[in-house]
Hints:
Blueprint: H1 11-35, H2 38-44, H3 53-74, H4 76-103, H5 108-132
Helix pairs in contact: 1-3, 1-5, 3-4, 4-5
Amino acid sequence: MEPTDAPTIRVAPILRTILLLAAIHSFATGVGLIVQPVPILEWAGWGTIEQHFFPAQGGVFHILMALLYMLAYRSASVRGMLMPFIILVKTVAAVFLLLYYTAVEPIWMVLASALTDGLFAAVFLYLFLRSRSPVPRI
């Protein structure tokens, strides 16, 4: 089989699926940060939250990002424009969380979040670059 005869799959449906997963993840995280259920916060390693405003503000940010992911999911015409920003946001989030985990407080959920955001960033970058190549292959 020649390299040009290699089986190809369409990247757009896979990218859309990952965008949907990111939207669900961000929306659930946002609601959790707004509601701040004590048992989940303790399980995740934060313990009791004394000041509720800043976590709630972070929750609003996550919900806005979920809406952005859904916009990219639904509209092919803006997806190409939004993907570089989405990749940047996920990359910055991963770096920030990893630095927070290593330099400030080693909360296991912070590390898990850093790894999750880093994985999303890497997959988004790979699929975005593949979607822009002349023959998208995976």
